[in-house]
């Protein structure tokens, strides 16, 4: 398993909405507006709500159509596993549909955290075929190792490439203390 930590956006345009949208609905073809835009680039809003909204939109990429979300497992600790747009997902938020809004609301409680969105990818070699349960367990282990146990997260498994991989979006702001996790050495963890 390889851990990939994508570079942060330079424009502070991270968004839970876009990331959750992207990771939960991978269409066969990328959206045209993701590749080329005829309009000049507008600076994205830097509010925490806007960052999470863009992240969920990016992750979901369902263009507003109503894709069925089927809950497959619910755990005593509040986690739930589900299928969204054909993608296996897990979250510890109240529901998948409200996960970005929940993360936005918690992030808004922290005045100091400028970019509460934390995204990483776990990728396996072509010949490695872990089960969904093993992938979710690996994601939870990584979240714990980063010191963000109890933080809100969404995880989605993608099998649209040669390598099975999962995207994990975590709210750096703790939902109980409203303090942000310090991740200055995240690559070494």
Protein architecture, described:
Pfam families: Relaxase. This is Relaxase. InterPro entries: Endonuclease_MobA/VirD2 (IPR005094). It comes from Pseudomonas syringae pv. tomato. There is one protein chain. The protein has 189 residues and is of the alpha+beta class. Helices cover 26% and strands 21% of the residues. The two termini are 14 Å apart. A hairpin with a 6-residue loop joins strand 6 and strand 7. The chain has a seven-stranded antiparallel beta sheet with strand order 1-5-7-6-4-3-2, sandwiched between helices. It has a single domain, classed as BirA Bifunctional Protein, domain 2, CATH 3.30.930. The protein is globular, with a radius of gyration of 16 Å. The protein is built from five helices and seven strands. The longest helix is centred in the last third of the chain and has 14 residues.
